Amino acid sequence: MMILPEEYPTSLPWDEKVFSMPNIPRGSKGLLYTLRDILENVKSHMNPEDKLSFIGSDTEITLNEACIRLRPMRLVSKTSDGWELTKESAIWLNSGDDLYLAAVLCANIRFLAEILYYLDIPRKSKELKEIIVR
């Protein structure tokens, strides 16, 4: 299901946005797969101390560690019982609309939309770093 742009989250003020994407394992399937897996585990109330592993990654983190890293992007929130999905992450999981996720990330992370502007063609990390320091 596609979410209409008018339903996208409002961008936070610049000084409230975080500086970077979440530092979570990517594995061989990439960020979207890993993020979806973590959020599905939150949704199913997995024990926060259980280890997560991802295909193609040697890194193992607990669900709690992953949620701590995702909280600044406002994808999860801490409760007395553990972690829960935010409205935005629940909408993304239920809809499967990756453009909506991009809007959520752009609303909460500095420079993300600005970097996406320069991705009109495939670029290497070094090229993106050069663009950032301009």
Could you name the key traits of this structure?
134 residues, two-stranded antiparallel ribbon, 9% strand, two-stranded antiparallel sheet, 6 helices, 42% helix
Helices and strands, in order, run as HEEHEEHHHH
Helix content: 40-55%
Class per helix and strand makeup? mainly alpha
Strand content: 5-15%
Return the average pLDDT rounded to an integer.
88
Strand ordering within the main sheet: 1-2
Low-confidence stretches: none
How many strands appear in the DSSP assignment? Answer: 4
Termini, distance in Å? 38 Å
Structural write-up:
The protein is mainly alpha-helical. It has one domain. It contains six helices and four strands. It has helices at residues 31-43, 63-70, 87-95, 98-108, 112-117, 125-133, and strands at residues 51-52, 61-62, 76-79, 82-85. The protein has a two-stranded antiparallel ribbon with strand order 1-2. A two-stranded antiparallel ribbon has the order 3-4. The longest helix has 13 residues, at 31-43. The relative contact order is 0.18. The model has no long low-confidence stretch (mean pLDDT 88).
